[in-house]
Structure prediction request, 258 residues.
Amino acid sequence: MMFARLLARLGDLFLGLLRELGEMAMLLVNCLLWLPRPPYRIRHFFGQLEFIGVRSLFIVALTGLFSGMVLALQAYYGFRKFGGESLLGGTVALSMTREIGPVLTSLMVTARAGSAMAAELGTMRVTEQVDALLAMAVHPVHYLALPRVLSGLIMVPLLTVVDVFIGILGGYFVGVMLLGINPGTYMQKMVEMVVASDLYNGLFKSMVFGLLLALISCHQGLKARGGAQGVGLVTTRAVVYSAVAILIVDYMLTALLF
Prediction:
């Protein structure tokens, strides 16, 4: 009996996951269908660019700075055991470009902007503002979801560039200024180990992450039910689901791209 209940519970979880994936796929399809259709709400779109990108700039830069500094410090202690301190510059730049920059930027944007998107759309749903848009012949996907999805797709890669650049500067400061590594050697190894494809693939990953976090946040916000408690629930789900999806897709993309 317990085994049967366990199987039933696992089946329910699997079906729920498939339903969520299907609903997000339909949201993405609807966004693509509405993309070329007027009216083009440029002012609303630029407002979302500013909200997701500009307002996330400080936290992304701060995260990148200390990520690069910690990475340089930890890598130095590991390399020192076998005399490989000269590899520090390349290791920091490669890690920031391929992995740490895209992932941490996406997680920070999820925590700051994704949660706000889910809460805002969830509040609009439970207060019947979404129904009012439908009554005025304004499709919620076109007006609410599309600008946010496009903004996530555009701004997360740009924020990733800032994160990577600041992280490399932080690693340089720790490695050269604090730990005494020769600056010429540091820069030489960084140039030797990092190629253009590392940056391109890292930016591609960040585009996928930006699309994912915006889709998940909008999807969760638009399905909110049950007043303030429902808004809190979908906001929590948006952050958790986005973070888990980013980490899972990060592994898949890393295995495919590198």
Summary: The chain has a mean pLDDT of 90.
